[in-house]
Design a protein that fits this description.
single chain; 97 residues; mainly alpha; 4 helices; 64% helix
Length: 97
Amino acid sequence: MATKPNWTTRNEIEFIRNIGKGLFASKGNAQMMNKKPIPLLRSYIRAAELRTYWPGMDREKCIEYAKERLNRLESIESLNSIGEKVSRRALTMAGVV
């Protein structure tokens, strides 16, 4: 009788979704998990592309999800940056700052 894998694609995607949120933190990775998610996702993707052992997981699906999440977060960060610049300029023009 075959045993089910302990960690599945769904588990790995949940892990990726929570990178940078402080979840899944253990003694060894607690500091890593409480940082900004963008550099962590970049590191995850680089490491995942080199990883050869994916028991019970769909490698392509996990990496693709990580890349999509990274793209979404980078887009949000870019929009936030643009919004801050526009807001600062508007406040400056209004003589507030």
